[in-house]
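Reminder to self: tokens first, then the designed residues, so the page reads top to bottom the way the pipeline ran.
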């Protein structure tokens, strides 16, 4: 099977054609680095320098795709050029092949070429000068250095700069990618937080409104309807106040208003009173003391959602609410009567349990909810941070 040769780069084609035409022009003008009378010139045919010139020019077409192959063939062509009257263009093209071998070749070739050409430079000048005690041989070492070592060293420097620039570009792309990932995660986390906040704010009051509006519509009792409408109005006003508070948080940093305070466990008593006004028989047992603000907010929202679920789903009977602090943990328990098969008094989406579980997980806490005998129990353990003020 024939080996496919990649199409040469257009710049390589220009170099090859330009070098070939320049070499032919110098040959036509009779400009050669050596004369036929020299003893080293073995091939005295007038057209002889054109052969290594043409071979070296063809090798230029391989300088990017097959740099090692081009260098090996070019070395053979340069060796052939030394037994003719020679062409300076052949030497120049060969220096470019050395440069390209370091720049475009493999890592091993790039590492070895400067050392190899450096050793050849020393051996080609110092050793003959020492053996024959003729300092003129040092000029041969200089020639090897100009033809081989200098382009190899230049290629090594350019390659290092190119690799450094590529590494910097990759680092910049990676940094931009990580920044985009962080931004996406931050947006996702913020959207999840807002979803939890909106659910906790709206579900509690809208559930009470739905339950009491159903009662007002189903009972032909003016007094009962009046009481239901009062509860509906109270929950509507409180819901609007909570929404304004959330909007204030979203607008934090704007100059026109200050964000409202974040709910804490200091408002637990008011939350229980609101649940009692909505018809729940809540029995509160609390001894948590002061807790960090993130823990207080999570605990408040978990209690709020648990009472909302009890209002929608619990059977008749008392709802037990306990908050206790022990061993660096705030324990929360909400237990309400549970009778499987009962139709909920207000529709639910199931997002409340997911939101409570997320709040506990964000603080490294433990959350569990489910039936325990004839009661539905929500248990949460929230660890307290080192910044606990108590």
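Designed residues (390 positions):
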């Amino acid at each position: 099977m024939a080996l496919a040769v990649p199409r040469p780069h257009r710049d390589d084609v220009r170099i090859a054609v330009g070098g070939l035409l320049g070499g032919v022009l110098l040959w036509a003008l009779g400009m050669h680095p050596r004369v036929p009378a020299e003893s080293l010139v073995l091939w005295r045919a007038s057209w002889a320098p054109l052969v290594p010139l043409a071979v070296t020019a063809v090798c230029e077409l391989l300088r990017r795709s097959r740099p090692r192959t081009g260098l090996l063939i070019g070395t053979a062509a340069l060796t052939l050029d030394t037994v003719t009257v020679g062409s300076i263009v052949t030497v120049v093209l060969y220096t470019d092949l050395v440069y390209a071998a370091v720049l475009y070749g493999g890592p091993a070739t790039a590492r070895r070429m400067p050392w190899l050409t450096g050793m050849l430079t020393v051996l080609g000048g110092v050793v003959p000068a020492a053996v024959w005690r003729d300092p003129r041989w040092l000029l041969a070492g200089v020639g090897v250095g100009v033809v081989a070592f200098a382009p190899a060293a230049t290629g090594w420097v350019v390659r290092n700069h190119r690799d450094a620039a590529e590494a910097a570009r990759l680092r910049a792309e990676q940094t931009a990618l990580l920044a985009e990932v962080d931004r996406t995660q931050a947006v996702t986390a913020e959207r999840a937080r807002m979803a939890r906040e909106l659910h906790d704010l709206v579900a509690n009051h809208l559930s009470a409104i739905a339950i009491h509006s159903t009662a007002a519509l189903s009972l032909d009792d003016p007094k009962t309807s009046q009481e239901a409408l009062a509860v509906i109005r109270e929950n509507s006003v409180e819901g609007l106040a909570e929404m304004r508070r959330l909007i204030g948080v979203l607008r934090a940093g704007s100059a026109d208003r200050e964000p409202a305070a974040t709910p804490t466990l200091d408002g637990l008593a008011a939350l229980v009173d609101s649940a009692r006004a909505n018809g729940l028989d809540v029995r509160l047992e609390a001894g948590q003391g002061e807790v960090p603000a993130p823990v207080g907010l999570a605990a408040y929202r978990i209690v709020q959602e648990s009472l909302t679920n009890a209002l929608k789903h619990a059977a008749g009977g008392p709802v037990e609410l306990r908050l206790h602090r022990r061993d660096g943990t705030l324990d929360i328990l909400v237990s309400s009567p549970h009778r499987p098969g009962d139709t909920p008094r207000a529709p639910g989406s199931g997002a409340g349990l997911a939101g409570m579980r997320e709040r506990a997980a964000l603080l490294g806490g433990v959350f569990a909810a489910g039936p325990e005998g004839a009661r539905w129990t929500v248990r949460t353990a929230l660890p307290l941070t080192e910044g606990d003020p108590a």
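The radius of gyration is 43 Å.
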